[in-house]
Design goal:
Number of helices: 17
Number of strands: 3
Radius of gyration: 28 Å
CATH superfamily of the largest domain: Type II secretion system (T2SS), domain F
CATH topology of the largest domain: Receptor-associated Protein
Strand content: 5-15%
Distance between the termini: 82 Å
Strand order of the largest sheet: 2-1-3
Shape: globular
Number of domains: 3
């Protein structure tokens, strides 16, 4: 599908603009008309620009906004308020302009006959995939209010987890940034002055001192590359994840790297267990639940393992036996699922696993600062030890020469 930028007048006479998707101008114009807008002009938008705009739109809508929306919708629908009325009432009290526009569009599309889940899916830059899929499950099972409640609870758990991880990374991030700043200052400003004095005295320079001089010269010329390197690496990883082959390598590396794997691996197991619990409680079959989870798990290594297990389960294999063949599923996961199959309490076992791995993640996030602290201190010690040795050796030669 292509992206189109439009400018139109809404029902209140305000000029609004936005982006719609469609297979050609006719479909894009129909999408604008479905919003009850009077179209002024419409132009085709390059996919890159549309992607950038979608990124900023998604960034402006926080996860807590979606949590509040899901919870409010669940409460209102359970109280007997019609879906369209609930969407309208929530839109009127929503302060976030991007979310308000999305809700108005979802309401209009639903009023025109589109399924609620399909209307929400049109705003994938705002609503997470799990939100869309659980709404679809709620529509299919007739338990929309329960699905929305499950979405709210699930996203709240993810929000609490993300907040805990951010808190634990404040100290390491501060230590790394301040260390890099001090290092750049030493190499670019202090060290050159000292080296100039040592060279003028004609003292033979040891190898480590020569290395420091070259590093200092490089830092003076290309100092901006030091803070820019993490940004370049971040962009490179994001670009690698756009292709399936390289994305698999990146996702596998995240499961192998020290410290990082503790967070990523346990988070994926918690997400797997939590979503399986929600889908099973909603009444979906195991193969259908695994299919949905594989699409929202967010890691190609897990996705490949889940799909392979789903195929074996479809041919009559037990769930635990199918998962046991893949090392990404821990023995605890396999053991608890085996118990759940035998006792008919799969949802309870998945709930236990979800709570267990979320608690484990919370503990890891609390200890992460202490885990990273010795690495940061060790790195700082090595760098400044090399600087001191590189400076002291020539000074020692000067002292011994003039005895």
């Amino acid at each position: 599908m292509e992206y189109f930028s439009y400018k139109a007048v809404d029902s209140e006479g305000k000029v609004v603009s936005g982006i719609v998707r469609g297979d050609g101008f006719a479909e894009a114009e129909s999408a604008v008309a479905a919003k009850n807008f009077h179209l002024l002009n419409i132009t085709k938008t390059p996919q890159l620009l549309a992607g950038i705009r979608s990124f900023f739109t998604s960034y402006s809508v926080k996860r807590r906004d979606i949590i509040e929306l899901a919870n409010n919708l669940s409460v209102m629908i359970r109280a007997g308020v019609p879906l369209l009325s609930a969407l309208g009432d929530i839109s009127l009290t929503t302060e976030n302009e991007h979310l308000k526009l999305a809700l108005d569009d979802v309401r209009n599309q639903t009023e025109m006959g589109m399924r609620f889940s399909d209307a929400v899916a049109m705003h994938g830059e705002i609503f997470p995939d799990v939100f869309v899929r659980l709404i679809k499950v709620g529509e299919e099972t007739g338990q929309l209010e329960q699905s929305l409640s499950d979405v709210s609870l699930h996203l709240q758990k993810m929000e609490d987890l993300a907040a805990a991880i951010k808190r634990s990374l404040i100290y390491p991030a501060f230590a790394i940034v301040t260390t890099m700043g001090a290092l750049i200052f030493w190499l670019a400003y202090v060290l050159p002055k000292i080296m100039t004095l040592i060279k003028e005295m004609g003292v033979p320079l040891p190898f480590i001192t020569k290395v420091m001089m070259h590093v200092s010269d490089f830092t003076q010329t290309f100092w901006f590359l030091i803070p820019l390197t993490p940004v370049i690496l971040f962009i490179a990883v994001k670009l690698m994840q756009r292709k399936e082959e390289t994305r698999y390598i990146v996702h596998k590396a995240k499961l192998k790297l020290p410290i990082i794997k503790l967070v990523v691996y346990n988070k994926l197991l918690a997400l797997f267990a939590e979503q399986m619990r929600i889908l099973i409680v909603a009444g979906l079959t195991i193969d259908r639940a695994l299919e949905i989870v594989s699409e929202v798990i967010g890691n190609d290594v897990f996705k490949k393992a889940i799909n392979a297990a789903k195929d074996k389960i479809s041919t009559g294999s037990r769930i635990a036996d199918s998962l046991r063949e893949h090392e990404v599923f821990s023995p605890l996961v396999v053991r608890m699922i085996d118990i759940g199959e035998t006792s008919g309490s799969l949802d309870e076992q998945f709930n236990f696993l979800s709570e267990y791995y979320l608690k484990k993640l919370d503990d890891i996030s609390d200890k992460m600062g202490k885990m990273i602290e010795p690495i940061v201190i060790g790195f700082i010690g090595i760098v400044f030890a090399m600087i001191i040795v590189g400076l002291m050796l020539p000074i020692y030669d000067i002292v011994t020469r003039f005895r």
